């Protein structure tokens, strides 16, 4: 195994252990088994106002897409976190449908986590000029991914899609990704950490990105995934296998509403309104946002499988079960 591939082993062993513990907790928790019901249940859905990419449930509520689909939905706002922190909440039923990066789910699935990815609406990786998910720096010497070698780079989630794609870009640009020091910080705290010199570069997302660039004199190094994964699924929704087995009707209605929301999100004027109404991190920033992310209503099982193959080729994820067991409706 190459040094590049081996650098992923430790983070994903940790993720696999988390998945195993959560699976054990699920098996022993009361009230998590399938149940028969005549009426549709209320669905508790996660959303993150820290990123425009994770705000589709707010659109579905604002435009009554959930209500029109005949679905009662409670949108639970999270201000920080990642798929690993969401996983226990999804498995114990506190949250019915979580949201995050597709490639963050796959190592957990490989480790035995009983979850399924929900295809349909979400976002895809895009190029730097239009991306709302980028690496930024205050150091003028850091101009491209290879310049991250020997530097400390902060990400919202270490060991997931962001780290994998950034490392692939460093390698493609001629650098050694094993010599990049990746650390975890919340997206909201990264701009100030850059300004103080605590880190050399870090992840930034809208609606935080452009206000931070202007305030702290930052510049974009590259988008996350530019050149290695443009067009591949980035953000998607997921649920537990147990909940999916007894709530297929709710999931199908949820898919319909989220697909409508993804189409509505292509209207940038409307997205500025959504950010101004629902973002708790950047009040007043809606007018200066340049990039909102590339939304799609076509996150197909085939595209999700392409992400899985990319990660496996680079040693970032182990053996996966058949895709039909971890992609809803495939």
Structure description:
With 330 residues, the protein is an alpha/beta fold. The chain has helices at 3-6, 9-28, 56-62, 65-68, 83-91, 102-110, 161-172, 190-196, 209-216, 241-246, 248-264, 268-278, 301-313, and strands at 43-47, 73-77, 98-101, 115-118, 120-124, 133-137, 152-155, 181-184, 201-205, 219-223, 235-240, 294-299. The strands form four sheets. A five-stranded mixed sheet has the order 8-7-9-6-10, with helices on both faces. A three-stranded antiparallel sheet has the order 3-11-4. It has a two-stranded parallel ribbon with strand order 1-2. The chain is globular and about 60 Å long.
Name some characteristics of this structure.
D-Maltodextrin-Binding Protein, domain 2, single chain, disordered N terminus, alpha/beta, 2 domains, globular, 13 helices, three-stranded antiparallel β-sheet, 330 residues
Which structural class is indicated by helix and strand composition?
A: alpha/beta
Radius of gyration: 19 Å
Query: Which bin fits the share of residues in helices?
Result: 25-40%
Order of helices and strands: HHEHHEHEHEEEEHEHEHEEHHHEH
CATH class of the largest domain: Alpha Beta
Q: End-to-end distance, in Å?
A: 32 Å
- What is the name of the CATH topology of the largest domain? D-Maltodextrin-Binding Protein, domain 2
Major sheet strand order: 8-7-9-6-10
Largest sheet: 5 strands, mixed
Second-tier CATH architecture of the largest domain: 3-Layer(aba) Sandwich
Mean pLDDT: 84
Number of E-type strands? 12
- By CATH, the superfamily of the largest domain comes out as Periplasmic binding protein-like II
From the spread of the alpha carbons, the general shape counts as globular
The figure for the number of domains is 2
Portion of residues in beta strands equals 15-25%
């Amino acid at each position: 195994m190459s040094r590049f591939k081996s650098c992923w082993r430790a983070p994903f062993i940790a993720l696999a252990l988390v998945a195993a513990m959560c699976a054990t907790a699920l098996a022993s928790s009361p009230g998590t088994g399938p149940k028969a019901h005549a009426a549709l249940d209320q669905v508790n859905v996660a959303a993150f106002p820290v990123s425009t990419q994770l705000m589709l449930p707010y659109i579905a509520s604002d435009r009554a897409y959930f209500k029109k689909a005949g679905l009662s939905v409670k949108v639970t706002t999270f201000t920080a976190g990642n798929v690993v922190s969401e996983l226990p909440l999804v498995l114990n039923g506190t949250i019915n449908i979580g949201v995050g990066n597709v490639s963050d789910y796959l190592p957990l699935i490989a480790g035995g986590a009983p979850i399924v990815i929900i295809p349909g609406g979400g976002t895809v990786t895009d190029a730097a000029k239009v991306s709302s998910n980028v690496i930024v720096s205050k150091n003028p010497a850091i101009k491209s991914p290879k310049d991250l070698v020997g530097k400390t780079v902060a990400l919202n989630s270490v060991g997931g899609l962001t780290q994998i794609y950034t490392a692939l870009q460093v390698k493609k640009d001629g650098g050694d990704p094993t010599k990049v020091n990746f650390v975890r910080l919340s997206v909201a705290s990264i701009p100030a950490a850059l300004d103080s010199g605590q880190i050399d570069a870090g992840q930034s997302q809208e609606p935080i990105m452009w206000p931070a660039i202007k305030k702290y004199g930052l510049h974009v190094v590259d988008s996350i995934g530019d050149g290695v994964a443009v067009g591949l699924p980035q953000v998607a929704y997921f649920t537990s296998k147990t909940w999916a087995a007894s709530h297929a009707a709710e999931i199908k209605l949820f898919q319909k509403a989220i697909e409508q929301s993804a189409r509505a999100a292509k209207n940038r004027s409307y997205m500025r309104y959504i950010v101004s109404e629902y973002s708790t991190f950047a009040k007043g920033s809606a007018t200066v946002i340049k990039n909102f992310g590339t939304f799609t209503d076509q996150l197909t099982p085939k595209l999700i499988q392409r992400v899985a193959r990319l990660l496996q080729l680079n040693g970032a994820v182990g053996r996966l079960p058949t895709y039909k067991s971890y992609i809803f409706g495939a």
